[in-house]
Structures are given as C-alpha cells and as structure tokens.
Amino acid sequence: MLLYVFLAFDDQARFWVPLAAGLVVLVLLALLRLDRLLKGWTWHIAGLALLAGLVYETAGNAWAWALAASTGVLVAGLLRLPRWQLAAIGAGLFVLSFVGYQFRAAEVRQQEDQVAQQAGDEMRQALGVSRPALVLLNLDRGIRDADPDPVCRLLDPQAGTQLLQATGAPTCEAAVASLHAAVPAGSPDPTAQRTSGTQTLPPGTVVPLDACTGLWGRAAPALGTVDAVRTEAPKETWRITAFHACTPPA
C-alpha cells in the first residue's frame, strides 16, 4: 500500500487502475463461484491484483518499488527495537533506493519536458498563414485593430523575444497594445498584396518581407523587416522567425 504514496505525486498515474483490478478479480471470482473453492483466499488474490495494478502504474520509475519495500523493512525494524539490525538494513536500503528514485524521477521529468516541447513545436508549426503576404497583413491588422491574436500566433520564440525587447512590454498582448497607440487614427484597413505564380517553396525557406512602409513598420521601425519561414507542417504554413530594423533612407 506504500506504492499509493507514489501515485499521489505522479500526475500521469491513474489511482483507480489498481482499485479496478482488485474489484474486477473479486467480481469474477464471485460470478464463477470460485470463492468457495479458494476457502478464504479470495481477498488475498484480489490483493495481488491490486498490487499488480500498483506495480503497473508506478512502472515509470521502478525505484518506487525498491523505495516502498525498503520503507517497509525500515518500519518493521523500528518496531523491533532495541534489536536494531533490521532497522539498520532498512535504513541503508531506504537511502540507496531514495537516491535511485530521485535520479530516475529527474530523468522522467526531462523526458516529459522534451515530449511537451516537441508537441508544442508541432502545434506551433500548424499555426500560421498560407502565404508570406498574409504575414504582413496580419501584422498591420493586428496593431490597427488592437487585436493581439493575428500577431502573437505567428511569432516563433525568437521573434516574440525581439518584439518584447523592442517595445519594452512584458507580454505580446501588451506589445500589440503599445504599437496600436502609434497607429494614426482613421488608418485604412490593410490589404494583402497579390502574388503571381504558383511556386511552392520547400519547408525551412526563409523569405524577407519589407513591412517598413506599412502600419507595422511605421509603428515599430526596429522590427520593420520580417523574416517569414515556411514551417514543416504538411499544409503550406508561414510564420515569423525574426525581425530586423528598417534600413534608414540614404
């Protein structure tokens, strides 16, 4: 039952699985009338099913099994004091298994962070626009309407950091609000430039876009040149990977 302590600290573990395993075994034994043949061992077998469920749910860090067992040995040894030999063995096993558990827990957290980061990257790649010209349209419309969504959902981490540094804002939403204040009142609704041809660029292609003459470039000249990148998404998708300052007129 000490393994239930580890389930309480594991967000991925399902505490109901061991209980369900024990309950299912009890029901099956009753339905098959095997409880009479077992002569009082029914609950013991259900307990083994519960233990199997606990072992299965804590398999991500097998050191939890050793830590739970060593804790049991330590408790048993403490109950036998002043005969301290068993307590000493339990304490030594507890320290060893605790160190192993912590190292393995760190590895598990690192693996989970990598999986979460990969999932976030894949989701981010799917957020974008279908052609580079729409990148500039989203930037201009976002600051004209004070709507952060068209801007913020296009930014890769590097571009987002550049936006915050250039505006001194704590968040992307606050940065868009500050740039909106620099947009002249009554500015017309921006439109995307139409492009000719149907050339499809491969993933990873970076296209520099000149936003210096639009609302975005006039509000934030330090971010006026936009690097749009074709993501790895199956459908053609473009995002902003970096900003550069507008070139001052000669």
Keyword list:
mainly alpha, 250 residues, elongated
Would you give an account of this structure?
The chain has a 3-stranded antiparallel sheet. It is mostly helical and 250 residues long. Helix 2 (16-31) runs antiparallel to helix 4, helix 5 packs antiparallel against helix 6 (85-126) and helix 9 (157-167) crosses helix 10 (172-180). The chain has helices at 3-8, 16-31, 35-38, 42-57, 63-79, 85-126, 132-144, 149-152, 157-167, 172-180, 215-219, and strands spanning 206-210, 225-230, 238-244. It is built from 11 helices and 3 strands, in the order H-H-H-H-H-H-H-H-H-H-E-H-E-E. The relative contact order is 0.09.
> What is the H-and-E element order?
HHHHHHHHHHEHEE
Could you tell me how far the N terminus lies from the C terminus, measured between alpha carbons in angstroms?
Answer: 77 Å
Q: Give the rounded overall mean pLDDT.
A: 82
Strand content: 5-15%
Strand and helix map with partners:
Elements lengths: L2 H6 L7 H16 L3 H4 L3 H16 L5 H17 L5 H42 L5 H13 L4 H4 L4 H11 L4 H9 L25 E5 L4 H5 L5 E6 L7 E7 L6
Antiparallel strand pairs: 1-2, 2-3
Structure summary:
The protein has 11 helices and 3 strands; from the N terminus they run ααααααααααβαββ. The chain has 250 residues and is mostly helical.
